[in-house]
Amino acid sequence: MVLKSSSFNLVTPSPPLLSPLFSNPPSRINITENIAIEGRNLSFSITTKQGNFVPILRDCSLRIPSGQFWMLLGPNGCGKSTLLKVLAGLLNTTSGAVYVKKPKCFVFQNPDYQVTFIVLTFRLQLVVMPTVEADVAFGLGKLNLSNDEVKSRVLEALSAVGMSSYLQASNIFRSVQTLSGGQKQRVAIAGALAEACKVLLLDELTTFLDENDQMGVIKAVRNSLHNSEDVTALWVTHRLEELEYADGAIYMEDGKVVMHGDVASIQSFIQTKQSDYIKRTYCS
């Protein structure tokens, strides 16, 4: 299938353009720079019921500075979501080392398209709270905050994602159930920000959204980073046009990190592959 701006699926993986960031897999990572996310020589495999060994991630290395918004792209099945789950600590690697600044938050959509997020000690929020304000404040009960501190955090978090008007006012309750898909995702991100998460790991949040909601979620993440230099985000996507909002990008194929760096280089690489595929398909 030809690479498109909304989604893409490349047929033949090409050899890596960049060598791995690290040639010798370490047992642990000592961070000396202002780095929020780092993976060194990460590999992950599964064993099928038939006993077959299937590699999913192959010697992946990446490094993302604090306070930046990065995107992770690649064909369907190349290992993007698996890599994100490894960084979140939801999957254990077969080999390699991982460092992610804490507290971290993993935001995704479950099969019913309800937004779910896991934060801190990986508390799974499956409860749908009655109002936007209650939903964002859900995880703050364990932090021993005063009512004023909770309200302040909720207001700051909702303001960061452009939803401060959804606070309770004049006894009007804004039900979470009445929100669009994109608004629910922004509320989930606000919940993570309220709990002072330093790293947002975001798994294909715009897949089922219309263009308006899609842009709303992306801008909410950008604003969150602008409002706090401490927050870093890694966003898995299939939409090439979303790259324009990123500070950097990672491109994967066949379980490997093929490119890692500035957005312009990633865009140029993908466009070249797109052009080459069209030539092979229609001009041969």
Could you give a quick summary of the protein structure above?
This protein starts with 34 loop residues before the first strand and ends with a helix. The protein has six helices and eleven strands. The protein has an eight-stranded mixed sheet, sandwiched between helices. A three-stranded antiparallel sheet has the order 2-1-4.
Protein model, in words:
InterPro entries: AAA+_ATPase, ABC_transporter-like_ATP-bd, ABC_transporter-like_CS, ABC_transpr_CbiO/EcfA_su, Molybdenum_import_ModC, P-loop_NTPase. This is ABC transporter I family member 10. Residues 37-279 form the ABC transporter domain. By secondary structure, the chain is α/β, with parallel strands linked by helices. It has a single domain (66-89, 101-282), classed as P-loop containing nucleotide triphosphate hydrolases (Rossmann fold, 3-Layer(aba) Sandwich). 28% of the residues lie in helices and 25% in strands. It contains 6 helices and 11 strands. It has helices at 80-88, 132-137, 147-160, 181-194, 211-227, 263-282; strands at residues 35-47, 53-65, 69-73, 95-100, 104-109, 115-119, 123-124, 199-203, 232-236, 248-253, 256-261. It has an 8-stranded mixed sheet with strand order 7-6-5-8-9-3-10-11, sandwiched between helices. Helix 3 crosses helix 4 (181-194). It is globular, with a radius of gyration of 20 Å. The protein starts with 34 loop residues before the first strand and ends with a helix. Residues 1-20, 22-26 and 120-127 have low confidence and may be disordered.
